[in-house]
Amino acid sequence: MKTPFTDIRFDLVERLPKKARPFALLMRLDRPAGVWFLLLPCLWGVMLALSGILNISPIHVWYIVLFCVGAIIMRGAGCIINDLWDQNLDGKVERTAKRPLPSGLIDVRKTWYFLGALMVFGLVVLLQFPILTICIGLFSVILVVAYPLMKRITYWPQAFLGLTFNIGALMAWAAVTGIIEIPALLLYFAGFCWTLAYDTIYAYQDIEDDVKIGVKSTALKFQEQGKKWVSIFYGLMLLLLVLAGYSAHAFIGYYIGLAAASYYGYQYIIKPWDLKSQESALAGFKANINLGLIILLALIFV
Asked: What are the backbone angles phi and psi of residue 164, rounded to the nearest 5°?
């Protein structure tokens, strides 16, 4: 059996007590990329919402801290929910066969208990926010629970992930302003397009296994047209970010930042991406973290 490419480092997990390691692996603490993809839209939303506020108060800093903690918790909870849905499928896929549930490293009962503890902790964090943010956060749980089912019924599970992973942009805007306005919606859908792009790239790692086990993805739908479609998604993301900045009366520095993000996306994600290479797909996927950070820096100048 071919060993799938991975650049995962287990240093953090191995430093933990032996009994804690299966729980850390359930949360994917050895793979922090997902935390970034959940956190960055939250930080985007905070920065965009603060564009019209001259004096940043301690409560805004506190919200950023809460979003950081919440991203770690809810990303971990989402991974566990995904693993519970997919425990019979993961053992058939090279990349996922060694996850704690299919490998027998932890049993289902303990997994449910741990998930419950994370959800309670996540609720405690959520309750620190204003009421509108709390309501949006509670609604997002429905999306988190439903997401793993999407690959069984549609070739567009990445679209559902986009709706789920970027809801933090709306939560952040609501936390700062108390309402949802046009710039927040534009930012949310920019993040949606971003997720369509990076998770399509990620899905090319599993394209052969997905065919064997009968699950769907945008990678299977696009096949050799992947670069074209991913480029379209990035283009739509950029357009929506421009519109979000315009609606928030952004300064020129914001648009310069978006130009830098566009250059980075083409030069380091689209151009070197080999659709046939797992290594290339993973590298392109992870390069999106830097892309998101460049956009975050641009939003400082809104």
From this structure: -80, -50
Q: 226, 197 in Cβ contact below 8 A? A: no
| pLDDT band, very low/low/confident/very high, at 15 (cuts 50, 70, 90) | confident
CATH match of 16-299 with 1.10.357.140: yes
pTM for this prediction: 0.92
Backbone dihedral angles phi then psi of residue 106, each to the nearest 5 degrees: -145, 150
pLDDT tens for 247-265 read 999 999 999 999 999 999 9
Rg (CA), the chain: 19
- In contact, 292 and 285? CB cutoff 8 Å: no
CB contact set of 127 (below 8 Å; sequence gap of 6+): 134
DSSP string, 233-297: HHHHHHHHHHHHHHHTT--HHHHHHHHHHHHHHIIIIITT--TT-HHHHHHHHHHHHHHHHHHHH
Query: pLDDT tens digits for 46-69?
Result: 999 998 676 789 999 999 999 999
- Cβ–Cβ < 8 Å for 214, 259: no
Hey, what's the torsion of the CAs at 113, 119, 125, 129, to 10 degrees? -160
Query: Residue 14 has what pLDDT?
Result: 81
Residue of 179, 186, 166, 165 lying closest to 133 (CA atoms) = 179
DSSP letters for 89-115:
HHTTSTTTTTSHHHHTSS-HHHHHHHH
All structural domains of the chain with their residue ranges: 16-299
CA distance 238 to 230: 12
| Backbone φ and ψ of 17, nearest 5° | -55, 145
